[in-house]
Design goal:
It is built from 25 helices and 25 strands. With about 700 residues, it is α/β, with parallel strands linked by helices. Among the domains are: about 45-140, Nucleic acid-binding proteins (OB fold (Dihydrolipoamide Acetyltransferase, E2P), Beta Barrel); about 240-275 and about 290-415, 3-Layer(aba) Sandwich (Rossmann fold); about 450-625, Rossmann fold (3-Layer(aba) Sandwich). The strands form 5 sheets. Strands 2, 3, 4, 5, 6, 7, 8 and 9 form an 8-stranded mixed beta sheet that branches. A 7-stranded parallel beta sheet has the order 15-16-14-17-18-13-19, sandwiched between helices. Strands 20-25-24-21-23-22 form a 6-stranded parallel beta sheet, sandwiched between helices. Helix 6 (about 190-200) crosses helix 7 (about 205-230) and helix 7 packs across helix 24. Bound molecules: adenosine-5'-diphosphate (ADP) and magnesium ion (MG). Adenosine-5'-diphosphate (ADP) binds near residues 255, 256, 294 and 295.
Length: about 700
């Protein structure tokens, strides 16, 4: 068996299954091997029937079948199979639906390990459809049972069986690609060992060793590819912008630039004007700054400079509404300075669009602002000098690749509002030069933030009403879209990567859709309450955001999708439900949605979590208002994982998918990964030495498999 063999060589994988797997990105044995469990059930701790604590969670029981299974027909072709089973402490009723064949499995006197929730609603406790494994002599059952993410028609049993066929041949399928020096220094287990044990861990320590090794791989491969991209970047040339006199633009501004803005603009102008010659090294810069720190004016001045030198500038933003906002805030300034500025989005009428395209091609438009409509094949520029992307993490890799193609000989400027701890930013934005805007314009009012629990609910609702009565608007952010399903519970309860402390204490998660309904029907029937979430279509989302920004909606209940960068100055209250579930930087981003107008704004974090750590974490939001300090604190408390899961651009900038490292809590591991990558590349820049061949192959595989998931 080989890493690249098709999965159809496995027993039981026919054409139908193969197609289903392929559709989900699993084509080769290697793909299957890297299809990691999303959680593990702890079936090793066996409970007694009589002393099971009353809780929501399933547990393991070793029970002997005590009565013959009886099958009963309940409604419409549904059958119920029922029997008693016992341990030395008591007995339970066990039922299964529509599985008559189990009659022959559960023979009186035979013993099984059952795993399920014990219900005490009736006099005799009961379990419904527990998982079961026969206890056999001389064969011990594994304490940790992997739970795989499932997709159409593929069940746990099938995946586990296929994966164990692969892990039985682990030594021929996976080869160590890390040099021994790194393994030793980092104290990592071998790759075959890790890959086998992440699927079938004999105990928690081994599992942790496997996870640590495989997380390191992801970080290390990420670090290596970022560093390689960086060393090959900047080879493009772009036109030199010799005229960097921006005084006219500055004179028009109703305010003074902050020192940080001035510094960032200085850096941009230095990039654009370069040293000598007609062409200079293309700018490849990211401006990172907290929400509201004033990044837009930096972009506008860059665009102005380019126009002034006779070139065109394009600015791409992720949503229509953001495009409109930017356009409205900049067009007059540009017109006044004598430059044409146009808007191009998906909903630009066809005739107008044709006209804009024609003008862009002829060089009659100096500055164009738009959505991904800008990267359509039909868009041609006459003299494109600068491409700006705002909030670029909202774009997919494919979109950005197309933009890069269009801008081959243009300068590139990226804006991001995700505060990344300084320690990480150098690594994460490795292939870009960074301008940090680390101060706010003066006079900005801070958004007072409070952490409350459920007992404040009534007061909270009155506060919402008060804000609305005063003519303001309210955001309510929930951690999920629909009501918490069993599946989600399972995930949080058993994912050893997710649980960092006792934060996940089984409290009910608020879900956007039902919560909006509840508010609308019983609490604010007289107000306009709407919801928005990522599963809605782009058009629907745009419509709702537009309505909200026009004041037609009083209370907007949402998941974290509420548009980054959208400015609704009239929104003065941000409520975050189950706040303990969010990263601090994410909370800070959410808080940035309010406090954009002249009115006093508030952020209320609702959390009933009893965990001391989550309380301590949330209290930081009450005392700290600077995104970078918050990011650093978050990094210290939760590790680097959050920063990956939160900002797809990070995952994508290195063309890497993180499946394990996104929940990595070990900052040192991340730092070491970058150090190791640097060492290897210093010694062998293109990875052509004999000892690095396997590493290079592995790197290609991750790049390829990443592309597969994008396409
Ligand atoms: P972001 O960095 O989130 O994109 P914006 O560029 O949208 O922030 O700026 C937020 C607001 O701050 C805008 O209304 C802008 O006009 C204003 N602003 C930007 N720079 C300054 C400054 N130096 N002094 C005062 N107000 C500023
Ligand atoms: Mg912005």
């Amino acid at each position: 068996m080989n890493f690249n063999d098709k999965i159809s060589i496995l027993h039981g994988v026919g054409a139908t299954y193969e197609k289903r797997f392929n559709e989900n990105g699993i084509c080769t044995l290697g793909d299957l091997l890297y299809y990691f469990p999303r959680a593990y059930q702890n079936r090793g701790d066996v409970f007694k029937i009589s002393d099971t604590p009353f809780d929501l969670y399933p547990h393991s029981y070793i029970l002997t079948v005590g009565s013959e299974p009886k099958v009963a027909m309940i409604k419409r072709g549904m059958t119920l199979l029922k029997f008693k089973a016992f341990d030395e402490s008591g007995s339970v009723n066990i039922t299964y639906f529509n599985q008559n064949y189990l009659k022959d499995v559960f023979k009186i006197g035979s013993t099984f390990r059952f795993f399920g929730k014990l219900s005490r609603d009736k006099k005799t406790p009961s379990m419904t459809s527990p998982a079961y494994e026969p206890i056999l002599p001389k064969k011990s059952l594994p304490p940790l049972v992997p739970v795989y993410p499932l997709f159409n028609g593929i069940n746990q049993k099938l995946i586990s069986k296929l994966i164990s066929e692969v892990t039985d041949n682990i030594d021929s399928i996976s080869k160590e690609f890390l040099p021994e020096s790194i393994l030793n220094r980092m104290n990592l287990c071998s790759l075959p060992f890790a890959l086998k044990n992440i699927h079938t861990p004999p105990d928690e320590n081994t599992l942790n060793a496997a996870i640590r090794r495989l997380s390191f791989d992801e970080l290390f491969l990420f670090a290596t590819s970022v560093s390689m991209i960086k060393s090959s970047a900047n080879v493009f040339e772009a036109p030199k912008m010799s005229d960097t006199d921006i005084s006219k633009y500055l004179n028009m501004l109703p305010y003074e630039l902050t020192d940080a803005q001035a510094r960032a603009i200085g850096e941009i102008l230095t990039d654009l004007s370069g040293s000598e010659g007609e062409y200079v090294k293309a700018m490849n810069r990211i401006v990172v700054g907290d929400v509201g720190s004033g990044k837009t004016v930096c972009a506008a001045i860059a665009a102005y400079t380019v126009c002034k030198n006779g070139y065109q500038a394009a600015m791409m933003v992720p949503t229509e509404i953001l495009a409109v906002q930017h356009y409205n805030s900049m067009k007059e300034d540009f017109h006044r300075l004598g430059y044409t500025c146009e808007l191009l989005t998906g909903s630009t009428p066809a005739k107008e669009k044709r006209c804009i395209l024609e003008k862009l091609k002829r060089g009659e438009i100096d500055f164009v602002i738009g959505t991904h409509a800008l990267i359509q094949d039909t868009v041609e520029f006459s003299k494109l000098g600068l491409v700006i992307t705002d909030e670029q993490h909202r774009f997919g890799v494919r979109q950005r690749a197309r933009l890069a193609q269009k801008s081959k000989n243009a300068h590139v400027l990226v804006m991001s509002a995700t505060p990344i701890p300084r320690t990480l930013s150098l690594m994460i934005y490795g292939d870009l030069d960074i301008s940090l805007i680390d101060m706010m314009p003066p006079g900005r009012k801070r958004v007072d933030t409070f952490v409350v629990d459920e007992s404040y609910r009534d007061r909270l609702n009155s506060f919402i009403r008060k804000q609305v009565n005063e003519g303001h608007q309210v955001y309510i952010v929930c951690p999920s879209v629909e009501e918490k399903s069993e599946d989600v519970l399972d995930f949080f309860d058993y994912n050893p990567f997710i649980i960092h402390d006792n934060e996940c204490d089984g409290t009910q998660l608020k879900a956007a859709v039902p919560y909006a309904k509840e508010l609308k029907e019983s609490i604010f029937p007289d107000l306009s309450v709407e919801f928005i979430h990522g599963k809605l279509k782009g058009k629907e989302k745009d419509k709702i955001m537009m309505d909200f920004s026009e004041g037609k909606i009083d209370v907007l209940v949402s998941t974290t999708v509420i548009e980054v960068g959208v400015n609704v100055p009239n929104a003065t209250l941000m409520i975050v439900e189950n706040a303990e579930r969010f990263g601090l930087s994410q909370l800070h981003q959410l808080r940035g949605r309010v406090g954009r107008g002249s009115d006093k704004s508030y952020c209320i974090l609702v959390s009933s979590s009893k965990g001391e750590k989550s309380r301590e974490r949330l209290d930081i939001m009450h005392t700290v208002y600077d995104g970078y300090t918050i990011a650093e604190r978050d990094l210290r408390m939760r590790g680097p994982g959050d920063f990956f899961s939160q900002d797809p651009s990070i995952r994508q900038s290195g063309q890497m998918n993180f499946s394990l490292a996104s929940s990595c809590t070990d900052t040192d591991l991340l730092l070491s990964a970058f150090e190791c990558a640097r060492e290897i590349l210093n010694d062998d820049r293109y990875l052509i030495k004999e000892e690095n061949i396997l590493l290079r192959e592995r790197l290609n595989i991750s790049l390829r498999s990443n592309l597969k998931t994008i396409n």
